[in-house]
Amino acid sequence: MRLLRSTDLALRVLMRLAVAGDSTPTTREVASDMDVPYTHAAKVVAELQHLGLLAARRGRGGGLTLTEAGGTASVGAVVRTFEGDGDVVDCEGAAPCPLHSACRLRGALRRAQEAFFASLDPLTVRDMVAAPTGPLLLGISSRP
Questions:
Q1: Phi, psi of 74 (to 5 degrees)
Q2: Do residues 30 and 45 make contact, with C-beta atoms less than 8 angstroms apart?
Q3: Is 73 helix (H, G, I), strand (E, B) or coil?
Q4: Bridge partner list, 63
Q5: Coil, strand, or helix at residue 106?
Q6: CA–CA gap between residue 56 and residue 41 (Å, rounded)
Q7: Which are the contacts of 124, defined by CB distance < 8 A and separation ≥ 6?
Q8: CA distance 111 to 87
Q9: How far apart are CA 129 and CA 143, in angstroms?
Q10: What are phi and psi of 62, to 5 degrees?
Q11: Tens digits of per-residue pLDDT, 89-144?
């Protein structure tokens, strides 16, 4: 299974903010740190803010901060939110699969997808920044 770019970025933004301490990086700085386009980072930040996982302040002295809910958020829940609940394969697309009515693969793939999410459920964002990851994240920051 491959995560969407937005899911990957959402997790990395949350992790980056989890080690930010008192600093409040801007969306532009986070985009630069993560080497992604600002517009893509802005969309992800807006969704994370909507979910209550981070807070954003505009203007002088503004920036992004991780909320308590963001630090304790389940990685599995974040991934589910960004990935959606669609099937791994599209059996009913433009060219529907002729095996659709009797296929066992779709159910097996759904169970594998749920097992993937379930393996991420117990992990929190803060768990993901334990050493050695946290110090490395601090090292790639554009701010001192």
A1: -75, 130
A2: yes
A3: coil
A4: 57
A5: helix
A6: 13
A7: 71, 72, 73, 74, 75
A8: 10
A9: 18
A10: -85, -175
A11: 777 778 888 887 788 888 898 899 999 999 999 999 999 998 777 777 777 665 44
Which amino acid, one-letter code, is at 106?
R
Instruction: List, for residues 45-98, the tens digit of each pLDDT value.
Output: 999 999 999 999 988 878 999 999 999 999 999 999 999 878 887 777 788 888
- Taking alpha carbons only, the member of 6, 7, 16, 32 closest to residue 129 is 16
CA distance 50 to 87: 25
**In a 3-state reduction of DSSP, which class is residue 138?**
helix
Q: Buried b / exposed e across 103-124, counting CB within 10 Å, b at 16+?
A: eeebeebeeebeeebeebeeeb
Round to whole Å and give the CA distance between 144 and 129: 18
Return the structure tokens found at 113: 């997808």
Give CA–CA dist 51/7, Å, rounded.
14
Q: Which residues contact 134 (CB under 8 A, 6 or more apart)?
A: 18, 19
> Three-state SS string across 5-64, please?
HHHHHHHHHHHHHHCCCCCCCCHHHHHHHHCCCHHHHHHHHHHHHHCCCEEEECCCCCEE
